[in-house]
Specification:
five-stranded antiparallel sheet
């Protein structure tokens, strides 16, 4: 795949690099994979997960001790059934659910990654912290 990097703007270049790395990961796996780019306080993290058989045992990712980000992919009869994303604020007493996003079948049947969520902006009180994320789904072949 050839990409003319001069035609891409600064933001688009970051997404192109992200997309190429996603293609490399999905080429190595024959099952669905979810990859999310999470931004908080100028720090960007790339989080990746595959199908789980026990969604209750999936541990959330700690985002700078301010947020928890949990990604769950479940399957039924060897087919991707649902994708659930959770965002929690990391409060001292207990985490507070800020967003739960559910995506159910049918999904695009493609090994190429595609944007699943669009850009999501989540805010946490009392200090109005902002978490921004986008997720891509790839490797869906059945």
């Amino acid at each position: 795949m050839a990409i003319n990097l001069k035609l891409l703007g600064r933001n688009n270049l970051a997404y192109a690099i992200f997309f190429i790395s996603f293609l490399q990961i999905t080429a190595a796996y024959s099952e669905p994979i979810l990859k999310c780019e999470v931004n908080y306080a100028g720090k960007k993290e790339i989080l990746t997960t595959g199908i789980t058989h026990d969604p209750y045992k999936v541990e959330p990712f700690n985002i700078s001790d301010r947020f928890y980000f949990k990604m769950v992919l479940t399957a039924k009869e060897d087919k991707l059934y649902r994708v659930i994303l959770y965002v929690y604020s990391a409060n001292k007493v207990r985490p507070t659910l800020l967003q739960e996003a559910k995506f159910f079948a049918p999904y695009q049947m493609t090994t190429e990654p595609y944007l699943l969520t669009g850009e999501q902006k989540i805010y946490s009180l009392p200090k109005e912290r902002e978490l921004i994320y986008s997720c891509w789904l790839g490797g869906v072949t059945k």
